[in-house]
Amino acid sequence: MESLLQDIRYGLRMLRKTPGFTAVAILTLALGIGANTAIFSVVNAVLLRPLPYRDPGRLVSLTSGQSLPDVNDFAAQSRTITRFGAFGEWPLDLLGHGEPRSIPSALVGGSLFETLGVRPLLGRTLTAADDQLGGAHVVVTSYGFWKTYLSADSNVIGSALTLSGVPYTVIGVMPAGFELPRGTTQLWIPLKVGYPEAANVRAAQFLYAIGRLRDGAGIDAAQAEVDVIGKRLGELYPEADRDRHWLLVPLHQRVVG
């Protein structure tokens, strides 16, 4: 211990004698430690931490854009995937809350919220029953939107929001930290209500599709089934689906890939 203390005192004296070298050494160490800390923070948040959904290891996604009719067909015909849902980013203009402003939002099709398995903070989420042509104009908000624009009102369920000139009824508020795998959307409305023109168009392939594997089903079996269903869709709807390659990947892989 005495020898160690002597070495430390000697080292400190040498550092005081060479302030330029000392400053460069400290700066180099600080930059190196800071960079490593920043990189680990990103890696931990993006690559290592599980996605914020129920049993995220069972979530899968069809790569590339999909149409709502194709997603619904996969949901109806698949036996290895219990639920399928999809979303497409779609900004909405908020009116009646100060200056009009564009809010990052998304059109939701199928059973997206049920697939992700996240319970709302207030009210309920959108279901496949909401995604109907001529259905009610309903909206689910993010926690941040609820706090910023709705004053964190616990009685907000049933209140009205004017979005892009159309009145919508608030049916749910999601918990803090909830977000979709892509984008920073704050409002979610049914696709068939918000954009009915694209609801039944197979060529409208702009949706991010997510499914949940049935317990005991592996992704290889699900991919084989998707290949069969996809081939059938290509034969039935050649103008939109001919020669398409339907690749199923774990959702985590698609998010961090």
Q: Main β-sheet: number of strands, strand sense, barrel status?
A: 12 strands, mixed
Average pLDDT taken over every residue: 91
User: What helical percentage do the residues reach?
Assistant: 25-40%
Beta-strand percent range: 15-25%
Q: Indicate the structural class.
A: alpha+beta
Low-pLDDT sequence parts: none
H and E order: HHEHEEEEHEEHEEEHEHHEH
Number of strands: 12
| Overall shape | extended
How many DSSP H or I helices? Answer: 9
CA-CA gap between termini: 51 Å
Query: What gyration radius follows from the Cα positions, in whole Å?
Result: 25 Å
In summary, what is this structure?
The protein has 257 residues and is an alpha+beta fold.
Top keywords for this entry?
39% helix; 257 residues; twelve-stranded mixed sheet; single chain; extended
What does this structure look like?
This protein is α+β, with helices and mostly antiparallel strands and 257 residues long. The protein is built from 9 helices and 12 strands. Strands 1, 2, 3, 4, 5, 6, 7, 8, 9, 10, 11 and 12 form a 12-stranded mixed β-sheet that branches. A hairpin with a 2-residue loop joins strand 8 and strand 9 (166-173).
